Amino acid sequence: MKKKVIVLGAGLVGKVMAEDLSEAFDVTSADANEEALQSLKQKQIKTLQLDVNDSSKLQTVLADFDLVVGAVPGFLGFKTVQQVIAAGKNMVDISFFPEDPFLLDDNAKKKGVTIVTDCGVAPGMGNIILGYHNEKMEVKKYVCLVGGLPQVRQWPYEYKAVFSPIDVIEEYVRPARYIQNGKMVVREALSDPELIFFDKVGTLEAWNSDGLRSLMKTMPQIPDMIEKTLRYPGCIEYLRVLRETGLFSHDEIEVKGVKVKPVDVLAKLLFPKWQLKPGEEEFTIMRIDIDGVQHNKEVSIRYSLLDKTNKGVLSMARTTGYTCTAALHLLANDKFINPGINPPEYLGKDESNFNFIMQYLKDREVIYQVEIKSIS
């Protein structure tokens, strides 16, 4: 009998994960928005209209499932994982919530459940790769550059939101933390822009974002670690203007006697313009550099990814979603059992699990090119 899996959230990534998992599991996709479930119904995947904010109903629903995938927006993520733990279910999550996931570690251990958080592309695959190499070498430096962009640059934004737009805005607001010379540095988001050339893409703009997340806690011995987001050149300037104007603020202001949050107004105006139109394609680009000492030699290891919309499936959904579904297979087959909160770097520690994930992605045409250079 197939194990029963529920995917919480039927957005761009949630849909793709439900379809991928349906080949091996009895899958149900749940979302508060009935309209979001329609395309899955047409593909004969079970659906359920469910508001994860309804804790009692969520608990009742979860009781019937063996495993859970979390694909809700970030602002719902922490509470949802909390409810999954209370239900005693193993879970892989990609909600990228802002709260510290380790606050839930004790409860997960008490319940004996394995929760894998942040298991997307970045954070996610970058952590898995670093977790793998950290077991084999003394890592001295880790740099991750990553972005999801439309194939065609269109004025004025030259960007499309391929995951929760409200989470995209958080990237532009949340302070960026990175490790330099063994110490944490906190800079504002969008800071320290630099232009970087990529083969087959051209020059992109990289800037500080808060993507290291759990790595700062789980790998404190690495003296230099940073993650930067990639966009088309010029993007950062208009984002700074929007931010400095106060349009990203959640603090209410009064307009003609009505209290509104500026970010809600911006979202109402901006999100429709950020939506991909039918037939529009996008790509995901990532470059990971790991420098350190292996077998008494200094080495530099580079992972490169350039993935494009494939057979109508968006690249960001593929690169994020298939990393998550690969991890779910590991949990389902008892290849990864570790009660508590598990950031994705824990998955990468085991070579067989790392190889499984890499092959799983390759089978779905998400291919990481690897280049290893000996420095000395």
Which strand order spans the largest sheet, edge to edge or round the barrel?
3-2-1-4-5-6-17
N-to-C terminal Cα separation, in Å? 54 Å
Shape: globular
DSSP strand content = 25-35%
What share of residues is helical?
25-40%
Task: State the low-pLDDT regions, or none.
Answer: none
Would you tell me the structural class of the helices and strands? alpha/beta
Q: In angstroms, what is the radius of gyration? A: 20 Å
Number of helices in the DSSP assignment: 13
Give the assembly state of these chains: single chain
Total E-strand runs: 18
How would you sum up the major sheet?
Answer: 7 strands, parallel
Q: Overall pLDDT, averaged?
A: 94
Q: What is this structure's SSE topology?
A:
Blueprint: E1 4-8, H1 12-21, E2 26-31, H2 38-42, E3 46-49, H3 55-62, E4 67-70, H4 74-86, E5 90-93, H5 105-111, E6 114-116, H6 125-134, E7 138-150, H7 165-173, E8 176-180, E9 183-187, E10 194-198, E11 202-208, H8 215-218, E12 224-231, H9 235-245, E13 253-255, E14 258-260, H10 262-274, E15 282-294, E16 297-308, H11 315-332, E17 340-342, H12 345-348, H13 351-363, E18 369-374
Parallel strand pairs: 1-2, 1-4, 2-3, 4-5, 5-6, 6-17, 7-12
Antiparallel strand pairs: 7-15, 8-9, 10-11, 11-12, 13-14, 15-16, 16-18
Helix pairs in contact: 1-11, 11-13
